[in-house]
Specification:
The chain is built from two helices and no strands. α1 packs across α2. Helices cover 81% and strands 0% of the residues.
């Protein structure tokens, strides 16, 4: 059975989720005092925003590759 997505999708997903995790972590370190709240808020924000950012990224990529007619 051939996979539906290439390796590029998985690499992009890991890179985007990692960047979002560290970006949100930086934001939440300024908001919350305890490390447990920072980790909890960071994980929730990264889980919610990763699919949205990936959708926007791949939509933009598709629009740039679409033939113009």
């Amino acid at each position: 059975m051939k996979p539906a997505f290439g390796i590029g999708f998985y690499v992009a997903s890991l890179v985007v989720s990692g960047l979002l995790f560290f970006g949100w972590r930086r934001v939440f370190r300024r908001v919350f005092r305890t490390e447990s709240w920072v980790v909890l808020a960071t994980a929730m924000a990264a889980i919610i925003t990763t699919p949205l950012v990936l959708l926007a990224l791949f939509w933009l990529l598709h629009m740039l590759q679409a033939p113009k007619s």
